[in-house]
Amino acid sequence: MTGTGAAPAQIFANPNSSTAAPAADVPREIQATARVIQPSYTVQSGDTLGKIATQFNTTAERIQSLNNLADPRALRIGTKLVIPPPF
User: What is the pLDDT of residues 23-32, one digit of tens each?
Assistant: First the structure.
C-alpha cells in the first residue's frame, strides 16, 4: 500500500446553492430551426454568379457556397440555384 495515508477528498453539493448544475435526467425542449430551402432561380443564357448576386442583393460567394459550386464560371443554363436571403 502506497500513499500518504490521507483520506481522499470528497465533494458535496450544497442543496441551498443557486449555482447548482441542472440534473442530467431532466428533459430539455429541443426546437427545430432548420429549413429546407428550395431552388429559387434558374440559370439563363449569359448569367454569371456576379449578375445573379447583384439581382438578388447578395454576393457571388454566398450563392457559390450555398449551392456547392466548385467553379463559379461553370454555370449551366437550366441549373436551379438556391439564392440566399439578402444581406
Answer: 567 788 877 7
